[in-house]
TrEMBL record:
<keyword id="KW-0285">Flavoprotein</keyword>
<keyword id="KW-0274">FAD</keyword>
<dbReference type="GO" id="GO:0047545">
    <property type="term" value="F:(S)-2-hydroxyglutarate dehydrogenase activity"/>
</dbReference>
<comment type="similarity">
    <text>Belongs to the MQO family.</text>
</comment>
<dbReference type="GO" id="GO:0008924">
    <property type="term" value="F:L-malate dehydrogenase (quinone) activity"/>
</dbReference>
<dbReference type="GO" id="GO:0006099">
    <property type="term" value="P:tricarboxylic acid cycle"/>
</dbReference>
<protein>
    <recommendedName>
        <fullName>Probable malate:quinone oxidoreductase</fullName>
        <ecNumber>1.1.5.4</ecNumber>
    </recommendedName>
</protein>
<dbReference type="InterPro" id="IPR006231">
    <property type="entry name" value="MQO"/>
</dbReference>
<dbReference type="InterPro" id="IPR036188">
    <property type="entry name" value="FAD/NAD-bd_sf"/>
</dbReference>
<keyword id="KW-0816">Tricarboxylic acid cycle</keyword>
<keyword id="KW-0560">Oxidoreductase</keyword>
<dbReference type="Pfam" id="PF06039">
    <property type="entry name" value="Mqo"/>
</dbReference>
<comment type="pathway">
    <text>Carbohydrate metabolism; tricarboxylic acid cycle; oxaloacetate from (S)-malate (quinone route): step 1/1.</text>
</comment>
């Protein structure tokens, strides 16, 4: 259970109670059990912002079905480099979670992870040709060797009947399928990890907001903290600080004053989903099905018809429908975006704005869509969708990274960015997808950068946690088979 009180000085402060802080804290507790750790979360429970399952739709990112990770090239070929790298990263997360199940940190794997096929689905000649080319590029690789592909309506209907019911027989469609995908409830996973951290002696402070920080002359960090329940303010000190506050990370990173934070900005994009209210429809669909993004749409807006398991209950969602708000967090302030503008990132942000008018147009079109128009978009996936059987829910905020670029002046980056101080006493994570699914490898990289003098001594233990660490499974089919066997057994995956 969370502890009360606050130590004036600790070894490590984790800012934010999401999957990133939970993963880093759990790793450090095993690597350095004598280190003191304090976690500060603005909300009153862990995993309530980007890690919450309703704010983090599409989880279990392994690049099996997300088409934006395998872009078409000008010559018609498909580049699968990013897809391969993301899948390699996801395999690391699976191994780490397996380790935590085996050592008792995580008790019931099905409370946070479940087997679920991943599919890509498109229609029209050009998209079908692209998907065939993508399949031909991916299938020879060990990571994707189980992938299936078809343009047969009946076979697709056997995989996901909602996609075909009511569709014109003559329409060309195509689908690729990877049967052994997963769905992950990162909210449940985060809360289990943080509860265990508390049991292991970490201080867990909910309803506490870190408002600013500064580096003292002895190299330690002083953090100003406000207790949002009683209004009390206090200062705590730490040797190392991790800013894992999602959309709130940029402001705190700027507060740190480290030179590595210069030039970074954030562009917030919100999202909405349609959620089925018809149990019969929910039961007919058992897959994550991703399609092609609209022209000008950000990668996080790739449409998908998505089975989810939340708190043990099965649900069905479609979306996202992108929107715009100046909040950096779902529970944030409309002033978040203007307050983030600094002289050092103004040029970056202006250059990004200049080069992304198509994104602005897309967001405007999405914001003005009526409920009926949203259902019309759903019907492109599920032709027989009934308007009255879908409710609109608001998902979380995503803050895309804007960073300096030597050629363009500034670029909008649709991914995650690990920013660490050169002296190794502070690190922050910015950005979004694939995010949570790659928490374990991102935190290993953070350990490598921030603790170079200790990392060599940790490698034996880290290899026990993650047997393939430092190796590429796609280049070692034998090791891949061994890893999959062990992770499937520990996580109870089919």
């Amino acid at each position: 259970m969370p502890q009360s009180g606050s130590s004036p000085e600790v070894d490590v402060v984790l800012i934010g109670g999401g999957i990133m802080s939970a993963t880093l804290g759990t790793m450090l507790k095993e690597l350095e059990p004598n280190w003191s750790i304090a976690l500060y979360e603005n909300l009153h429970q862990a995993g309530q912002e980007s890690s919450d399952p309703w704010n983090n739709a599409g989880t279990g990112h392994a690049a099996l079905c997300e088409l934006n990770y395998a872009p078409a090239q000008p010559d018609g070929s498909v580049n699968i480099t990013k897809a391969t790298n993301i899948n390699e990263q996801y395999q690391v997360s699976l191994q780490y979670w397996s380790h935590l199940v085996n050592n008792g940190t995580l008790k019931d794997p099905n409370s946070f992870i479940n087997s679920l096929p991943h599919m890509s689905f498109v229609w029209g000649d050009d998209h079908a040709k692209y998907l065939q080319t993508r399949y031909e590029a991916m299938a020879p690789n060990p990571l994707f060797a189980e992938m299936q592909h078809t343009e047969d309506h009946d076979e697709i209907a056997s995989w996901a009947p909602l996609l075909i019911d009511g569709r014109t027989d003559g329409q060309r469609v195509a689908a690729s399928r990877f049967e052994h995908g997963t769905d992950v409830d990162f909210g449940a996973l985060t809360r289990q990890l943080i509860d265990q951290l508390a049991d292991d002696g970490a201080e867990i402070h909910y309803g506490h907001k870190v408002t600013s920080m500064s580096r003292d002359t002895d190299g330690r960090w002083s953090l100003d903290v406000k207790d949002r329940i009683d209004g009390r303010k206090f200062t705590t000190r730490a040797r190392f600080v991790f800013i894992g506050a999602g959309g709130g990370a940029l402001e705190l990173l700027q507060s740190s004053g480290i030179p590595e934070a210069k030039g970074f900005g954030g562009f917030p994009i919100s999202g909405q989903f349609l959620r089925s209210t018809n149990p019969d429809v929910i039961e007919q669909h058992h897959a994550k099905v991703y399609g092609q993004a609209a022209v000008g749409a950000p990668p996080m807006s790739v449409p998908h018809l998505d089975t989810r398991f939340v708190d043990g209950r099965r649900s069905l969602m479609f979306g996202p429908y992108a929107g715009f708000s100046t909040n950096f967090l779902k529970t944030g302030s409309f002033l978040d975006l203007p307050k983030s503008i600094r002289p050092h990132n103004l040029g970056t942000m202006l250059n990004v704005a200049k080069d992304n008018f198509d994104l602005v147009g897309y967001l405007v079109s999405e914001i003005t869509k009526t409920h009926g128009k949203k259902v019309d978009t759903l019907r492109e996936f599920y032709p027989n969708a009934v308007d009255g059987e879908w409710e609109l829910i608001t998902a979380g905020q995503r803050v895309q990274v804007m960073k300096k670029d030597p050629v363009k002046g500034g670029v909008l980056q649709f991914g995650t960015e690990l920013v660490s101080g050169a002296e190794g006493s502070i690190a922050a994570l910015l950005g979004a997808s694939p995010g949570a699914s790659t928490a374990a490898p991102i935190m290993v990289e953070l350990l490598r950068r921030s603790f170079p003098d200790r990392f060599t001594g940790w490698e034996t233990k880290l290899n026990e946690m993650i047997p393939s660490l430092g190796q590429r499974l796609n280049d070692n089919p034998t090791l891949l088979a061994e890893v999959r066997k062990e992770t499937n057994k520990a996580l109870q995956l089919s």
